[in-house]
Amino acid sequence: DGVNDAPAMANSTVGIAMGAAGSDVALETADIALMADKLETLPFAIGLSRKAKGIIKQNLWVSLGIVALLIPATVFSFANIGIAVLIHEGSTLVVVFNALRLLAYKK
Q1: What pTM did the predictor assign?
Q2: Rounded to whole angstroms, how far apart are CA atoms 105 and 93?
C-alpha cells in the first residue's frame, strides 16, 4: 500500500515508489516515482541519471571555464565586452545542445 513504506523511504539512500500502486504519501516521500507498474523501466532510469550526471559535469566545466576566461580578458581589455557577450552566449548554446543529447538516450 505504500503507507507503511514512507518512513523507511525517508531514511533510505534512494526511495522508489510505483505511481499507480503506491499511496500519495509514498509518492511524496520517494526520490523516484515510477508512474507505470513496470520495474523494467528502473534500469533505464538509472542509466539515464548516470548519463545526466556526466553531462551536467561537462556543462559546468564548459560554462565555468568560459566565464573564468572571459572575466579577466574583459577586465584587462584583452576582449571587447561585445565579443565577450557573444562568446558567452555561444557557450550557453553549446551547453544547451550538449544537454539535448539526453533526449537520444535509448539504453
Answers
A1: 0.74
A2: 20
